[in-house]
Structures are given as C-alpha cells and as structure tokens.
Design goal:
single chain, 154 residues, mainly alpha, 3-stranded mixed beta sheet, 7 helices, 3 strands, globular
C-alpha cells in the first residue's frame, strides 16, 4: 500500500471534536501535499499546512490526530522519493520533538502525558532505526540534532 493509499484509508473524522480548530479534510489534504512536495518554493507552505492541520503551529501544539498523522510524517521522512519532501517531514518531526506540546484537553481516549510520550517514543524509534548515511547534508544535520536530543533524554 502506498502512503497516499494509507492516508485515504484512515478515518480522519475519528479525531473530530479533539479540538474546535481540527478539520479532518484539511488534515488529509495537507498530508497528501507533504507526500507530493517536490519544489523548494513550496516547502514553507506545506510545512505550515501540516502543522496547522495536526495542531496549532503558532501555539506549538499538536492534537490527538498525531496518533495517525505521525506515522505518515515519519514514512515521508524515511521513504519520500525526493529530498525536499523528506526535508520538510524532518523539519516537522524536529518541531514536534523539540518545541511542540500536546493539546488533548477535550479528548477522552488519551491523556496529555500519554500523547506526549507516544510522540517522543515514535520519533525516538524512527531516529535510532533509520540509516541516514545517504541523506543530504541538511537532512543529516536535522537527524543528528534529533539523535543528540534523544540521547540527552535517556
């Protein structure tokens, strides 16, 4: 199954109500945009669109939709056909790791602490199990920064 197919099979409406600003259609569209990203000039818009669809980019928060969206973002970072999409996904992962916090106030299925640990664990597993030897210099820098961060957390 391709990443695009995977995105289309996920029921993004399951997260409706997790936050009044969450929009399931916008979330699906922004993740598809990330996968198809192939122009440097569109990286900032795509980055913002994804972070605003899974949370509040200005506030530095993510919603419980991250439970489904993070796997897609990591998959793009690992397997996208071009460096631009991988770079954008890694930038998103970096922000989620370093400076974003969960916003799960209105969500009953998972606590804020559990959501935070889920994100940190998923990203940590990705970082330690990804061979980024052949990545561009800018992607290697992001990955090295993430490895350093998670090494300090241990």
């Amino acid at each position: 199954m391709t990443i695009q197919e995977k995105i289309k099979t996920i029921d993004w409406t399951n997260h409706n109500g997790c936050n009044k600003y969450y929009n399931s259609e916008k979330c699906q569209k922004s993740l598809l945009e990330l996968i198809l990203l192939n122009k440097e000039s569109k990286i900032t818009n795509t980055y913002d669109n994804v972070l605003f669809s899974i949370g509040n980019n200005h506030a530095g928060t993510y919603y419980p939709v991250i439970l489904d969206a993070l796997d897609i973002i990591i998959e793009v970072a690992r397997n996208a056909q071009n460096e631009i999409a991988r770079n954008c996904a890694l930038e998103i992962i970096s922000d989620l790791s370093f400076s974003f916090e969960p916003d799960a106030e209105n969500y009953k299925s998972i606590s804020t602490e559990e959501l935070y640990e889920f994100v940190q664990n998923q990203i940590s597993c990705f970082i330690w199990n990804y061979d980024f030897e052949f990545e561009s210099d800018r992607n290697q820098k992001l990955l090295n920064d993430l490895k350093e961060y998670f090494q300090k957390r241990k």
